């Protein structure tokens, strides 16, 4: 297991909350090639299955909670970020102008979590697991490799997440007069990486996080997205450094993205 202090700010678990879990399972198994493991939930709790890469669980899929539906949330992916102390993270988020949408709450045999909304509207879960985190997975088919926040104020969002999760800014790319700066970050140990754009301001959309899954053949995977009822909304396109990406929607409307490493 990894040293716990090295994992602060690491994106450790990705959950799909959807209107049709069975259909979503079939879609992602066909498109990404993930495996599935059922998790024994407490009596009365919603069914929960875990996505796997090889034998290792990387996330889960569950029905969209009634609480989220009532708030108008569509099917979506949610990432959990590892923290040293959930209650302390909650207090810090409030101090920084964020909101607590749920929790803190204990999950038996899993840990403690809270759903946090940043001041612009982006949402992440702060999670402290009962057991130490396993080592970081090497990039490969089906592994989440990039975490991207599309927001209305990149500078303010960066300040919030640096203070809350200890994310470390790395560099910024000037994307032109409309898009402005694309701010990149990593967790303190370099275990998780991502970026912050102001695409939500440009498009007039609600701030949200988007998660990139590595695939070995982007063009073939994009074809599978359409074949199995999903939609490609942007790409495939090359990004600085030679990697290629595409942004997609699954058949239930949850946004996700694909990432192919540069050849050679």
Estimate what percentage of residues fall within beta strands: 35-45%
State the distance separating the first and last CA atoms: 32 Å
What's the Cα radius of gyration? 18 Å
Q: Strand-and-helix sequence, N→C?
A: EHEEEHEHEEEEHEEEHEHEEE
Work out the helicity level: 10-25%
- The count of helical stretches stands at 6
CATH level-4 homologous superfamily of the largest domain:
2,3-Dihydroxybiphenyl 1,2-Dioxygenase, domain 1
Strand runs, count:
16
* Overall structural domain count: 2
The fold-level CATH name of the largest domain is 2,3-Dihydroxybiphenyl 1,2-Dioxygenase, domain 1
What descriptors fit this protein?
alpha+beta; 2,3-Dihydroxybiphenyl 1,2-Dioxygenase, domain 1; 2 domains; 8-stranded mixed beta sheet; 20% helix; globular
Structure characterization notes:
The chain has helices at residues 21-31, 66-70, 86-95, 154-165, 199-203, 218-227; strands at 11-18, 35-39, 48-53, 56-63, 76-82, 99-107, 111-117, 123-129, 144-150, 168-174, 181-186, 193-197, 208-214, 231-238, 244-249, 255-260. The protein is α+β, with helices and mostly antiparallel strands and 264 residues long. The strands form 2 sheets. An 8-stranded mixed β-sheet has the order 2-3-4-1-5-8-7-6, with helices on one face. Strands 10-11-12-9-13-16-15-14 form an 8-stranded mixed β-sheet. A hairpin with a 2-residue loop joins β3 and β4. The mean pLDDT is 92.
Structure summarized in a few sentences:
With 264 residues, this protein is of the alpha+beta class. The chain has helices at residues 21-31, 66-70, 86-95, 154-165, 199-203, 218-227; strands at residues 11-18, 35-39, 48-53, 56-63, 76-82, 99-107, 111-117, 123-129, 144-150, 168-174, 181-186, 193-197, 208-214, 231-238, 244-249, 255-260. Strands 2-3-4-1-5-8-7-6 form an eight-stranded mixed β-sheet, with helices on one face.
């Amino acid at each position: 297991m990894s040293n716990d202090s090295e994992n602060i700010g690491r994106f450790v678990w990705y959950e799909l909350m959807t209107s049709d879990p069975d259909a979503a399972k079939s879609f992602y198994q066909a498109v990404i090639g993930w495996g599935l493991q059922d998790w024994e939930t407490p009596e009365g709790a919603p069914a929960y299955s875990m996505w796997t890469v090889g034998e290792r669980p990387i996330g889960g899929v569950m029905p969209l909670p009634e609480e989220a539906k009532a708030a108008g949330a569509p099917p979506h992916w949610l990432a959990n970020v590892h923290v040293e102390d959930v209650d302390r993270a909650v207090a810090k988020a409030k101090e920084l102008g964020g909101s607590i949408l749920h929790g803190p709450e204990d999950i038996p045999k899993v840990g403690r979590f809270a759903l946090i909304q940043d001041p612009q509207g982006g949402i992440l879960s702060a999670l402290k697991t009962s057991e130490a985190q396993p080592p970081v997975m090497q990039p490969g088919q089906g592994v989440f490799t990039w975490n991207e926040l599309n927001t209305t104020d990149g500078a303010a969002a960066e300040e919030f997440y640096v203070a809350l999760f200890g994310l470390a800014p790395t560099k910024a790319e000037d994307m032109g007069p409309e898009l402005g700066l694309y701010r990149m970050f990593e967790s303190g140990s370099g275990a998780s990486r991502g970026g912050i754009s102001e695409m939500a301001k440009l498009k007039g959309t609600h701030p949200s996080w988007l998660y990139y899954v590595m695939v070995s053949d982007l063009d073939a995977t994009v074809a599978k997205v359409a074949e199995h009822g999903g939609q490609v909304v942007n790409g495939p396109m090359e990004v600085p450094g030679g990697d290629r990406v595409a942004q997609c929607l699954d058949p239930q409307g949850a946004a996700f993205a694909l990432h192919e490493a540069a050849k050679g």
